[in-house]
Amino acid sequence: MAVDDKQNNLNGGFYGPSIPPPTNTTLRGASGSSSCLCNFFCIIFKIILALVIIVGLLILILWLVYRPLKLKFHVTDAALTQFDLSDSNILKYNLAVNISARNPNKRVVVYYEKIEVNAYYAEQRFGSASLNGFYQGTKNTTVWSPVLHGQSLLVLNSPDALTYFDAQKSNGIYSISLKVLLGLKYEYGTFKSATMTPKVECYFNVPLSGYGSSYWVSFKETNCLLLST
């Protein structure tokens, strides 16, 4: 009987104390690193967001304080003393213009770094001139007086363009356009803006000096368009 009891005990299941599962130190370490990395990027994002908000508020405050007004440009006078187109499409020209540049702002100074005046006829550039940069104070009007002279290739391919030129030649009054390329900065107190590159476009009719019926025609002051880029 003792042998049978022992045999039964050996055949029965034996349940000892439970063994805890092994801890996965690798996963816990990876999870901790990921959490630290996430916190780092969150801090960087908050710093960048705060800087953007601060810069935006500064720009808004500057705008409210200075309230910059748009610059104004006019062609106040123009003199065309030569505008001859040869049979070989060579244009000889001599054009002098006065362009007034007005800074209407009370607190904003303008620094012109680049002033390039280009003259066009029939949408073709025939002459250009560059002017020296300068500082323009507040509530100031400055007159630019570029002179464009020389010769250039001017091709009028279409019959309409040739007819238009012949009609203007007969009248002694020509349709000229100026496109002024600018590089400028605005100064708001001690703050200076980045360089901006607006363009000024002026369209006007100018009589050829001393030519027939145009002798009695005077130039009319023309407003120009300021286009941002």
UniProtKB/TrEMBL annotation:
Membrane association type: Single-pass membrane protein
Subcellular locations according to the entry: Membrane
GO BP, sorted A to Z: defense response to other organism
Swiss-Prot/TrEMBL keywords: Membrane, Transmembrane, Transmembrane helix
Name listed for the protein in its UniProt record: Late embryogenesis abundant protein LEA-2 subgroup domain-containing protein
Membrane spanning stretches: 43-66
Broad class of the protein's primary localization: membrane
Location of the Late embryogenesis abundant protein LEA-2 subgroup domain: 99-201
Cellular component GO terms, alphabetical: plasma membrane; plasmodesma
